[in-house]
Design goal:
about 80 residues; mainly alpha; 2 domains; single chain
C-alpha cells in the first residue's frame, strides 16, 4: 500500500530507514480508520435536545475506542 500511495519503487522502500517506513505504514493505517479529515470533534452540546446529546455521547465513546487503538497506553499505564 505504501508503494501505491507514494509511487515509490520497491528499491526505494527497501532503502528507507525502518523507523521512517514504519511511521509511513502507521499513517496509512490511521487514515484507513479515521479518513483524511482525522477524528471528529466530540464536544457534547450542553443546550441541545436529549437525542442530540445522546448521539454526541455515542460518537464520543466510538472515538475514544478508536483513540485507544491508535494510541495505546505505555507499559507503565501512561498515555
Amino acid at each position: 500500500m505504501l508503494a501505491l500511495e507514494t509511487g515509490w519503487t520497491p528499491d526505494v522502500l527497501a532503502a528507507l530507514p525502518l523507523r521512517f517506513r514504519a511511521a509511513c505504514h502507521w499513517v496509512l493505517y490511521t487514515r484507513a480508520l479515521v479518513g483524511p479529515e482525522g477524528l471528529p470533534d466530540t464536544t457534547v452540546p450542553i443546550h441541545a435536545e436529549p437525542q442530540v446529546k445522546a448521539a454526541a455521547i455515542k460518537l464520543r465513546q466510538h472515538v475514544e475506542g478508536i483513540r485507544a487503538i491508535l494510541f495505546p497506553e505505555d507499559d507503565d499505564g501512561n498515555a
